[in-house]
Design goal:
Keywords: Signal. The protein is mainly beta and 240 residues long. The chain has 4 helices and 8 strands, in the order ααββααββββββ.
């Protein structure tokens, strides 16, 4: 595999890859200049390259655990689910998150072979409600593990199949210039999740949700009754 453990070093150290990854660069907050500073600065147009996990500056998500390798980069396109069933039409109450449902498309080779073509892939996928021609590789959904509603990733299109029954460990607010979605509701946070202790996970143990587009909840339950969905897209970087 091309993917090596430099990811954990990158997560800690690198504000941008305009310079080689091992050279410190000036610690400016590039997010205010561009929503995708790392990608646009780091693209090599003609050669196979090692995918670099997008990180914000400053980065508040934890580094990857040692000894893990990148398994799959997936483009997720679907919905975040919320409910106001307990407080219908109440403007002083906030919707409650009750899960998500997304189709996952395999974009690993795109990041390896054609990073110049990636652009703002999640914004485009959300606007087109499509996987942009990439191969479906599985689904993201929530399911009960015991009494815990659990974020789950089933990459049944991968051989051997990969499965992650996860627990959310960290959240990081999306960059200010992230695409705010079809109704300008805002972009859901970037996340770091790890395998739970259910024993259900196979071949994967950690995932980052990055480059989110849309999906955030309305701030109140005004004019909201029952369950509703907000379309979103994100990149999921799976490690195992
Ligand atoms: C909430 O508001 C909608 C639209 O105004 C209305 O149809 C619905 O009956 C209301 N629900 C409740 C529980 O009051
Ligand atoms: C989320 O919404 C979708 C679409 O309505 C639905 O199929 C799914 O069951 C919902 N999932 C959860 C956990 O609410
Ligand atoms: C997810 O949404 C799709 C339609 O977008 C639907 O066919 C499917 O049943 C949903 N799955 C779950 C687990 O909610
Ligand atoms: C993202 O891509 C779309 C389609 O190419 C473009 O219209 C839009 O301006 C881009 N947005 C950002 C924030 O770069």
């Amino acid at each position: 595999m091309l993917y090596q453990r430099i990811f954990s070093a990158l997560l800690i150290a690198v504000p941008t890859i305009a310079a080689p990854w091992y050279q410190p660069t000036s610690p400016q907050d590039t997010h205010h200049a561009s929503p995708h500073p790392i990608r646009s600065a780091g693209v090599a147009a003609t050669s196979v390259s090692t995918p670099v996990l997008p990180v914000q500056t400053p980065n508040t998500l934890p580094p990857l655990s040692d000894s893990l390798n990148l398994r799959v980069i997936a483009l997720g396109v679907g919905t975040q689910n919320y409910t106001c069933s307990q407080t219908p039409n109440v403007s002083s109450s906030a919707p409650v998150s009750v899960g998500a449902n997304a189709t996952l498309y395999d974009v690993t080779e795109l990041f390896t072979n054609s990073p110049q073509d990636i652009g703002n892939i999640t914004e485009t996928a959300l606007l087109q409600n499509s996987g942009l021609g990439n191969q479906p590789i599985g689904h993201h959904f929530f399911t009960y593990v015991g009494s815990t509603l659990t974020p789950t990733f089933d990459l049944d299109g991968h051989s051997p199949s990969l499965f992650l029954s996860a627990v959310k460990e960290n959240t990081e607010t999306a960059p200010v210039l992230a695409y705010t979605g079809l109704s300008s509701e805002g972009a859901v946070p970037w996340l770091f999740l790890q395998s739970d202790t259910s024993g259900l996970s196979e071949g994967m143990s950690e995932v980052y949700r990055v480059e989110t587009a849309g999906g955030a909840q309305p701030s109140t339950c005004a004019d909201k009754d029952g369950d509703f969905q907000v379309p979103y897209s994100a990149e999921y970087w799976f490690y195992g």
